[in-house]
Amino acid sequence: MKVKQMLSRVYANNADEAVEFYEQLFQKKVSSRFMLPKPKLEIINIGVF
User: pTM of the prediction?
Assistant: First the structure.
């Protein structure tokens, strides 16, 4: 079976700081970012692994 994509959860108090850190770490940019109103949650996808 071929793995198409891997996802990992990261919880952060400041999403903008976390995005900056992970963009630099992985040398990838945010590919999607959206809010879920309930539960109040922001989903951010950085790059494809």
Answer: 0.75
